[in-house]
């Protein structure tokens, strides 16, 4: 079971940290229901335990809420501090569902136990990449609008295994989707070549994760797949100048319902 929290129109100077099974629902126009994080905080952080199987039922903790089934719907999320726009949404555990939200900045998804769903969201205006899926996470992206980012629309590295389908990815300064599907760090340090069969399997997995997405006007092409393990510039993105959509950009209206 999960509780329902109704959020009425307004600008809330807060950071939302989800640790319980709940449904947070914005009531009204999405662009008028704004969570604006102050200081050096992300607007939304998912900190659920991420695995119901880890809750020991034999100890009587079966009812313990883990944040597994949380849903955030119909909110606009942004950071007052422009230096935090690269991590406007920070998901490091759990299986939270972001539904029809607008993220004015970047989304970072990381970790073995992190399996979020992003559905019909608008993600725009990050200094670096719009979504960074990393460190074995298994995000599911469906029907999202990803545009006007300073680097890639979607960046996948460090053995992340997402499913990305039916998204619109356009007007990003680098690639629409950039995939790093190589081996881990130690093998690179040993300068050992990746086995050809393993590379073929890894490449096939990377391609199968992408289906029925549409692309337009991405400066470095729609999809790029490389055998490297990680993007060394991903952390540098946070120090770049803002390259988000301007006030005159007609795509600004994409976050309004």
UniProtKB/TrEMBL annotation:
<dbReference type="InterPro" id="IPR011050">
    <property type="entry name" value="Pectin_lyase_fold/virulence"/>
</dbReference>
<dbReference type="InterPro" id="IPR039448">
    <property type="entry name" value="Beta_helix"/>
</dbReference>
<dbReference type="Pfam" id="PF13229">
    <property type="entry name" value="Beta_helix"/>
</dbReference>
<dbReference type="InterPro" id="IPR012334">
    <property type="entry name" value="Pectin_lyas_fold"/>
</dbReference>
<feature type="domain" description="Right handed beta helix">
    <location>
        <begin position="80"/>
        <end position="182"/>
    </location>
</feature>
<protein>
    <recommendedName>
        <fullName>Right handed beta helix domain-containing protein</fullName>
    </recommendedName>
</protein>
